[in-house]
Write a structure and sequence with these properties.
alpha+beta; Ribosomal Protein S5, domain 2; 4 helices; 5-stranded mixed β-sheet
């Protein structure tokens, strides 16, 4: 394969920066930068639950995702109420599933009315991997939101956040597996895949497809191993951010 656009090795993630407490209004607020991709992830708390969970002793966690108009070179039209585009809808469902996978919803039901945590992921600049960045940043925002609830006096018998979670993209270009694709790489990849894993190394979601060329089971395993190495690194970066380092 030709040299990567930004000079990275095939198994190297982009430079990552996680800035906590980016805004003051939300109990959890994170700006995550992965290369040129920038996503603002906020976690808001409501002391109520959706109607389908009322009286069941559980809380809820849900997510919304949007790309802001200037996040791409050509202005993207804003999503309107009731007119969220299919891609945004699919990604916000992915973010919600990924964070619920490591959240104990029963612990969010410790107060009588229950607790709902909203994770809003807004892409400020898109250069590939926005869904992965959203999941990775939203996890840190979630941790901060839960800490704010403890400071309010909510007593959790055990931590509602059971594990870490992060996502990363992998792909195949000219027969070679690569980690953490930027947009220019993603747009010409023969295979594009998004992997979400927990801190324990368990898979949450695998999204992948081939564009014109098929790929083998052996290559699938290589891609999973490559993604796992990247996610382990991302989880270490999350831990350092939460520790204030």
């Amino acid at each position: 394969m030709d040299k990567r656009i930004d000079g990275r090795l095939q198994n190297q993630i982009r430079q990552v920066e996680i800035i906590r407490h980016f805004t003051e209004s939300a109990p959890g607020s994170v700006l995550i930068k992965m290369g040129r991709t920038k996503v603002l992830c906020t976690a808001s708390v409501e002391h109520s639950v959706p109607e389908f969970l009322e009286g069941k002793g559980k809380g809820w966690l849900t997510a919304e995702y949007a790309m802001l108009p200037a996040s791409t070179p050509q202005r993207k039209q804003r999503d309107r109420v009731g007119k969220v585009d299919g891609r945004s809808q699919e990604i916000q469902r992915l973010v919600g599933r990924s964070l619920r996978a490591i959240t104990d919803l029963e612990m969010l039901g410790v107060i009588p009315q229950g607790i709902t945590i909203w994770l809003d992921c807004d892409v400020l600049e898109a250069d590939g991997g926005t869904r992965s960045a959203a999941i990775t940043g939203a996890y840190v925002a979630l941790v901060d939101a839960v800490e704010s609830l403890k400071e309010e006096g909510v007593v959790f018998p055990r931590n509602p956040v059971r594990d870490a979670v992060a996502g990363v993209s992998v792909g195949i270009i000219k027969g070679e597996p690569i980690l953490d694709l930027c947009y220019a790489e993603d747009s010409r990849a023969d295979v594009d895949m998004n992997i979400v894993m927990t801190g324990k190394g368990e898979l949450v979601e695998v999204q992948g497809s081939a564009e014109g060329k098929t790929f083998s089971r052996q290559m699938m395993n290589e891609l999973l191993n490559l993604a796992e190495s990247g996610i382990k690194e991302l989880i270490q970066i999350q831990k350092m951010a939460i520790a204030g380092k």
